[in-house]
Amino acid sequence: MTDMTTTYVNLAPSRAEKFRQRVLPMILFALALAVIPLFGPSRTTLTLMNHMGINIVFALSFNMLLGRAGMLSFGHAVYLGLGGYFCVHVMNWIAAGSGIWGAVPVFSMPAFGFAAGALAGAVIGWPSCRRAGTPFAMISLGVAELVAAAGFMFDSLFGGEMGISADRMGGHEFLGLTLGPLEDVYWYIAFWTFVGVVGMYAFTRTPLGKLSEATRDNPERVEFVGYNPQRVRYLVFIFAGAFAGLAGGMSAVQDEIFTPENLSLVPSGAILIAAYVGGIRYFTGPIMGAIVMTYMGSNLSDYTAGWLLYLGLMFVGVVMFVPDGIAGVVYGTWDIISGGKFREVAGSWAIRLLGLALMAVSTITLVEVAFRWSDGYGEVFEPFGLALHHGSLLTWIVVVVPFALGALLLRQAARAENEVTT
Amino acid sequence: METVVFALLNGVIYGLLLFMLSSGLTLIFSMMGVLNFAHASFYMLGAYFAYTLMEGSNFWIALFIAPVLVGLAGMVVERYGLRKVHARGHVAELLFTFGLAYLIDEVVKIFWGRTAVNYKVPELLDFPLFTLYGAQYPAYRIFILLVAILMLVALWYLLRRTRAGLIIQAALTHPHMVGHLGHNVPMIFMMVFGAGCALAGLAGVIGGNYFITDPAMAVQMGPIVFVVVVVGGLGSLEGAFIAAMLIGLLQTSAVSINASLADIFGFLGLAGTSEVGGITIASMAPMLPFLLLVLVLMVRPTGLMGDREV
């Protein structure tokens, strides 16, 4: 025993750092949301923005499970859907104006969605959160199939295949927003997106948020410390369901309709892809993923019939080669540039970029030619005035040569990197 | 009586088809510890390959070649895809196969179109085999039964009675030890993955014309196969067999029951005109497997025959 006292280095961030890392990004985010309408976006852009807002909240709530708590859910859309359905019903009650509902503004819908999502999470999570890992994923799949099937069965609750629609202009105005024109809806969505993002960020700072990460990394040690991992998972699940319900409330006002399709595996899979492509290890990852995926979903489908294929390729590519997603790439690049190491890696990056671009050219050509051949309308893929028939030699040169070159370049870059690190 | 016999026969056939699919999935799971989300996509590939081969040749050639092609595709996926992702853990692997299922769906749509293809039962087998209670029973269903049983026996023999099966079984539980003994374990894994996919492909070849061959068949079949594997107990072939038969019988017999909930729970005062009372057992058939899954996982997390927690 010595009488030496240990002095701990103060690892806590200073006030300035706290402000820079936590408060400033939120202020910038709010500013960005406030500035967008000044550019006078068109109706299509506004609709796109609104859907982005909804998907940002949805993807972040999904990531509370996958990224933070390590729970892979294949049925997260169930909570968005149930929250949204509840809101659609509430909107109809508001429109009927009977009793207490006449006094509720439509603006408050996400709060109702939040409550409904939390309730759904509490009920469904009770059996499913008893397990983690693969069984949890399988149960979430089974539950999603069950709820979607039930959605088609109970017409008075879910409206059958037609779904249930509502009118967002009923009830009282709030803050002077009638919610009729899309501009009003934009402010509504922007407000609730901000609330959702701040709320979920605040959640990561709570003891429960920290414990959820600990449970993901090592449930046994969490148990040793005296917490029950099952209960941690269950509580996180309720919150994730609640925030998904919040997104459902936003969606109910934006689209004014919910169908049982909203509960199915398809939107659940889409949000899984969006969050993962964005990068599940970063808080901002799902936000980036939601923005990119919503944009691709609404715009790419105008350009090409193969957009789902591109989406799938992108997802598989991210899973295989860039597990940290878009956010990982962005922050990695930023670290290197701000660390002044850009010169060292510039060469290898240039080679990689060139390789990727070549492979992209080859893939896009192949997919586009294949889709036109498959449609059978005799349409020809003509990039830059180059007629690429599916039978012509030129097409196959454009497909094979860049692919081989690109693969070679990427391989070489990877090999060079291995030599540096080992 | 009539309904019961037909439901039993059809249920057994459906169950055997399910087992053919889930046996491959179970083998792959016990080997790599990952559920192959794209397994039903290989089933779909089998049906489409057989359809294309049948145009150029005949059904019997397709019956042998198509599963082999599917198996080769599976081996390529294992070698150049899964093996790379393996180091990053099970979630990454699960997500990889999830993305792969997406891709295969789209590629199938490119090659064979978005609508169902006319994949027919071969003429040689397109006749009623016997008449039961005045209804004719197609020979092709009995053919499915025979192929499935043949496969079952062959699989059992291969795994339990041959040296190759011994090595595979050892590699499932003790891959390192098998590696030290001089066997090429990654090679064994690749072969097993290919064989599992080939079994799914075989199910596709004989199931594609029994049901319908369209790009949605993977999405329809996939979740049910999962249910079978998880309910049976992950990694247990016997469990998968029991679960497959159970779900096959459950679903086919539910479809043939016309009773509504009001008929059953009428004594509790449930009216046939009410919404809940009007639901028939038949309309609940697609939900039953998932109900079973949730119930089994809640009550018995290891599944029916599983010896390990999933």
From TrEMBL, chain A:
It is a multi-pass membrane protein. The keyword Membrane applies. The chain crosses the membrane at residues 23-40, 46-65, 77-94, 100-124, 136-154, 185-203, 234-253, 307-332, 353-373, 393-410. Keywords: Cell membrane, Membrane, Transmembrane, Transmembrane helix. One of its GO terms (molecular function) is branched-chain amino acid transmembrane transporter activity. This is Branched-chain amino acid ABC transporter permease. GO terms for cellular component: plasma membrane. CDD domains: TM_PBP1_LivM_like. It comes from the Bacteria. InterPro entries: ABC_transp_permease, LivM-like. It is found in: Cell membrane.
TrEMBL record, chain B:
One of its GO terms (cellular component) is plasma membrane. Its main location: membrane. The keyword Transport applies. Keywords: Amino-acid transport, Cell membrane, Membrane, Transmembrane, Transmembrane helix, Transport. The chain crosses the membrane at residues 6-27, 59-82, 94-112, 139-159, 187-212, 224-247, 279-299. Coiled coil: none annotated. It is a multi-pass membrane protein. GO terms for molecular function: transmembrane transporter activity. GO terms for biological process: amino acid transport. InterPro entries: ABC_transp_permease, BCAA_transport_permease. It is found in: Cell membrane. It comes from the Bacteria. PANTHER family: ABC TRANSPORTER ATP-BINDING PROTEIN, BRANCHED-CHAIN AMINO ACID TRANSPORT SYSTEM PERMEASE PROTEIN LIVH. Belongs to the binding-protein-dependent transport system permease family. LivHM subfamily. This is Branched-chain amino acid ABC transporter permease. It comes from Pseudooceanicola spongiae.
